[in-house]
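Final report, Chapter 2: Outcomes

The project's central promise was a pipeline that accepts a single protein chain and returns its three-dimensional structure in a standardized token representation, suitable for archiving and comparison. That pipeline is now operational. To close this chapter, we reproduce one record exactly as it appears in the project archive, with the input sequence first and the structure output second.
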Amino acid sequence: MSYRLVAFEHTRESPATNTLLFISGLNDGLLTIPYLAYLSSHLPPSFSFTEVLLSSSYSGWGTSSLTQDARELAECVTYFRELRPEGKIVLMGNSTGCQDVMHYLISDGARPKVDGAILQAPVSDREAMRIVLSEDEYQQSVETAQQWVHDGKGEDVLPSTIAFPVFGARCTANRWLSLASPGPEHAGEDDLFSSDFGDERVERVFGKAGKQKARLLILYSSHDRSVPDTVDKAALVKRWGICFVAAGGSLDAGSGILEGAGHTVKEKGEVLENFTVRVVGFLERVQNAAPGKVQ
């Protein structure tokens, strides 16, 4: 059991029977994502909106891991299962929160089932890192982290000159290698959404999630500056979806590219409305699905 962990539930006019659990990305926490207040006020009446603060929230990610996040998320899901035993639970991640959601679905270990998952801005931290760092800076950071791990210092915090300029926080050698995921294996635990993966690696992520009979909504922003210009975003999402469905998963019809949207959908007007309509539609379809049935 983890202690001192908090989930903030937005109040509704009427009691909710279902729960949307939101997990933010690196350096984010309570209400730091621009669209949260708007989205929470437009959810179906049966859904509550709850922000999950993990020990990795804000700058805590640098000394945490996806495995630890999954354990803590399991405790949160268990709490809401007991609170609303007849209700549905959906996980929604933004950015690195998408890695938490996917890791929850596909990693080994027993944890309570959820009824759906939303990936908003499921980008590759490895590819984002290569936008910011020069080739020499990337290689030097990886070599330093690898040497620290070799010396038994994997959980020690690297010099701030390595991680802080990229992600704005300090980071252990282990977490840096998880995010940087150096080749040729690209074996980092966080490396789930890179565009250069072959079919076998995509199968290990989206195929495995599909085998869990999961319901999934993928929302990829057209103007996400964390994604290299060379990435065909629509083709990438389509490839993930084909693999997911072929394995038995249910990919929501609202999945695809959010035109005009940035990484955290801070845009107003039509962009925000389009995003909200897709999320609300997905939640309504999850709500109406029979337990255990893939639609």
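Archive annotation: The first strand starts at residue 6 and ends at 10.
This record, like all others produced under the grant, will remain available to the consortium after the project formally closes.
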